C-alpha cells in the first residue's frame, strides 16, 4: 500500500535530488566555514553562496541574513529583544511567538474567519508600541494576512514590523522592501530542506540570542550548518516551479469534496487561504479518530500544529475562531510536491468508507 503524505505544513518531504547532490560532493561540506584552511574555505564558499540566494529570494541583502537553527529561534530572537517594550501581535500566531512575548506588554488582536485587518492594527496603535508581529500565512488554517498594507502603514510610524513567513515562503511572493518588513523569519525544512536550519532577516542589529563565538558577524553564535543552508537555498527554485501544481491540487481537492457525499465545511474562505493548506470540519467525526483511522490506511494528515510534542491536540486557531467543538472535528490537509490527484482520490475514498 502506498503511503500518502498530506502534512507538508508540519515538515516537507525531503528533496531526494538535493540530498543526492550533497552526498555527491560531501567533502566540500567537511570543514568548519570559520576555519582558515582549504576545508573551511570550501564550506564558507557554499555558505555564502547560499546566503546570497536566500537573500535574493526575499529581496534582501546578504548582509541582512542571519542563519539560525530554525524559525522558532528566529521568532524568539526578535520577540526577546522587545520583551520590555509594548508590542502588538495576534491570537493565532505560532507557539514560538505566543510563548515568548511578555503578556504584560502585549496587545493581542483577535482574528476572525477572514484573519485580521489593518483597521484592527490601527485601533490598537499607541505611542508606546515599538513592534508589530504578524505571520504572513497562518500555519493551521492557511489564512493570508494583509502584510503589505500593514507594512505600508507602519512605515510612517516609529514602529518595527516582524513577520513570520514560514508558511508563505515559496508559496507567495515576498519582498522585504516592498512590504516594509524590518524582521522576518523563515524555515528550511518547510520547503524540502534539511531540518534544523532557519533564517532571520534583520534590517537592524538585534541583541544576540545565542551567545558564544563570533559567527554570523557576532549576531548568532554556533558552528554554521552549511548543509542546511545549501539545502534551503536549492529548494526554493523548486517551490516556484511547483506553485501551479499545488494550486491545481487545492482546486481538485475542493472540487472533489464538493462532489462527494461527505458532510464537511471548509474552515475559512478558500479564496483567502494559501494554496497548500486546507482545513476541513467533519461534524460527524472527531479529529483524533480521523487521524488514527487515516493513519491505519497509510494516509498522514494533522489536526493542528505539529509543535506539540506528538500530542493529538485540536487546532488552537480553529478553536479560537470557531470554537472548541469545531476544532475537535477538524483536519488540516497540507499539500506538497509529491502529492497527486490520485492521492486525493484515495483520501476521499477512505473517508467515504466511513459512511
Automatic annotation (TrEMBL):
Coiled coil: none annotated. It catalyses: (sulfur carrier)-H + L-cysteine = (sulfur carrier)-SH + L-alanine. InterPro entries: Aminotrans_V_dom (IPR000192), Aminotrans_V_PyrdxlP_BS (IPR020578), Cysteine_dSase (IPR016454), PyrdxlP-dep_Trfase (IPR015424), PyrdxlP-dep_Trfase_major (IPR015421), PyrdxlP-dep_Trfase_small (IPR015422). Its cofactor is pyridoxal 5'-phosphate. It is an enzyme of class 2 (transferase). GO terms for molecular function: cysteine desulfurase activity; iron-sulfur cluster binding; metal ion binding; transaminase activity. Residues 4-347 form the Aminotransferase class V domain. PROSITE patterns: AA_TRANSFER_CLASS_5 (PS00595). The keyword Calcium does not apply. Its EC number is 2.8.1.7. The keyword Cytoplasm does not apply. It holds the Pfam family Aminotran_5. It comes from the Bacteria. Keywords: Aminotransferase, Iron, Iron-sulfur, Metal-binding, Pyridoxal phosphate, Transferase. Belongs to the class-V pyridoxal-phosphate-dependent aminotransferase family. NifS/IscS subfamily. This is cysteine desulfurase. The lineage of its organism: Bacteria, Bacillati, Bacillota, Tissierellia, Tissierellales. The gene is iscS.
